[in-house]
Known about the structure:
The chain has helices at about 45-55, 75-90, 105-115, 200-210, 235-250, and strands at about 5-10, 20, 30-35, 60-65, 95-105, 140, 180-185, 215-220. It is of the alpha/beta class. It has an 8-stranded mixed β-sheet, sandwiched between helices. β7 (about 180-185), α4 (about 200-210) and β8 form a beta-alpha-beta unit. This is Alpha/beta hydrolase. It comes from Demequina lignilytica. InterPro entries: AB_hydrolase_fold (IPR029058).
Amino acid sequence: MADPRTVPYTDPASVLQDMQVLEPVEDGSWPVVILAHGTAQSRSALKGWATGIAATGAITYNLTWPSGAGPTPEAVENLACAVSAAVADAGRHGGDTSRVVFVGHSLGAGVGAPAVLGGAEHLEDCAVAAGEDTLPNGFVGYEGPYDLASVDYMNDRRAPDPPVDESADAYAAIGGNPDLVVRLLHGDAEDFAWYDVPLGVSEDFVDALAEAGYDAELTVVEGGSHVEIGHRGPVEPAVIATVSELLADL
């Protein structure tokens, strides 16, 4: 694997809006994978995922994005911009831009879902010009809060006040990017802390996607929890295997 490089996805550059790129040394036409971490984290949270996915033969973009603001239109625009910038960069470095998968954990999946379904406007300071936005053809989400439009996880799970903008609502985006292949994962080790996402959230979202005609499946990760997602537990290998299988099918 080549030495990692870090590139911004906005212009002007920002340390909160950049991505670390892991890519194979060998020549080839490698698929493209973009990873987005959860609330108030950084890309280090998904380092193991990124390394494992890159090792299977993919150009992998591990983001740091401003997730602390929660489900806002700009947060969705940030992730949509990052996808477009990653695809543009991959096209210049031997990437197969016909096979692009977005992977999100927690808020990265909850906000990533409307972004990859096409619910985002163009981010004003995106490094990719307006009109060059790109949608992925695969989505892998682990324990995403896809119900953010109806549940405020940081406020006793009450209804959001003020309401979440429709552009940040994963359900409102269903119908966009109709060829998107969706693979959701969810652990069965619920602890009911404020940040934990019940299994039913993923079940409901995959059902809604399937009813709308998407190729959508849910896998339950035995022993998987919301925060213990590193190499010592069952989540990391499950995510890496799911991404590898999805790329093989695209």
